Amino acid sequence: AAIELYFNACGEYPGNTGAGAGCAASAAGDWPTLTSTLKTITDSQIPSDPIDKEPSFYTYAPDSLFQKYALKAVLEDENQVLKSDLDGTIYGADCGPADATDRYYCTGLE
Questions:
Q1: pLDDT tens digits, 46-82
Q2: Which of 51, 64, 69, 86 has the least C-beta neighbours within 10 A?
Q3: Is 95:87 a contact under the CB 8 Å cutoff?
């Protein structure tokens, strides 16, 4: 995945405004910023939000050391995958409750 290629090249995940040489400095949070940051390291395809309107935006949230992250998407409908995703607040991303009623799908490194 492109985010892992960035980590391998930079030694941290995107979001550090003081990124090292050859790594794009960026603020964390919104999908367009993450996408443009990743494209500085790789020409891998980065998916776009198919709905592209609130509240369906994808969200990227790194930890304070840029060594872990959460990726969040708001699903349109209930889905079985919600029973095994990350829940709670992960690095500032609201990943919803553990009861699978929220439609917030979160994955990443905890």
A1: 887 777 776 557 888 999 999 999 999 888 888 888 8
A2: 64
A3: yes
What would the pLDDT profile of 17-41 be if each residue is shown by its tens digit?
877 777 877 776 678 788 888 888 8
User: Which pair of structure tokens corresponds to residue 47?
Assistant: 């998916």
Structure tokens at 103: 């439609």
Rounded CA gap, 97 and 68, in Å?
21
Which tokens is 93 given?
């991303």
Half-sphere exposure of 68 (CA within 13 A, CB side): 10
Q: Please choose, from the candidates 28, 76, 86, the residue with its C-alpha nearest in 3D space to the C-alpha of residue 50.
A: 76
